[in-house]
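Margin note: ligand = zinc ion.
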Amino acid sequence: MDTRIGFGWDSHAFKAGVPLRIGGMTLDHPEGLAGHSDGDVLLHAITDAMLGAVSAGDIGSFFPPGDPRWKDADSAIFLNLAMEELQHAGYRIANVDTTLILAAPKIAPIAGEMRARVSELLGIEIDQVSIKAKTPEGLGLDHVAQCHAVVLVERVQEPDELKSMSAVIESQRQLEDVVDDLLASVHGVPKKRTISPVYDTEDIT
Ligand SMILES: [Zn+2]
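Resulting structure:
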């Protein structure tokens, strides 16, 4: 199986007067996360992990922080972009594992609901999404939320590179056919059969 792995990390400071958005959910808390978008630290880390898995850059290269279009944007938009990049590269998510680091609110009681929401946004099963949370012991970062994310992806279709390889093989076959026909007509040599694929196509759908 052809797999790749991606890692993402993000942090946002807590700020009064804005809703707290984590994992595509609005949480009941007196402060939210400051950011140009909705500050969803979990979705940003997952987005970067997905982009990283297919070497497609990072969230900042697609959505520059100063761009007014992404002011207060729902971070599900960023996730969608990363999903398109994954699909374009011919991969799908095998599983996602994340660790949130924040002093409050407590994530454990709502982790199940958050996993359901994130798996819905990603179009995968809930058991493919893990959300864990820790407090920032000894870091002096009680007013910051951080998130680490890793994403394993697996190949599902023939990417562009393999398509071009197929084209090369096809043109070689055509060339051999022409040569075989010439040989057959000139010397009466029977046609022989030719090139086998240079890669295993079994797991490519
Ligand atoms: Zn962020």
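Residues 176 and 191 are 10 Å apart (CA to CA).
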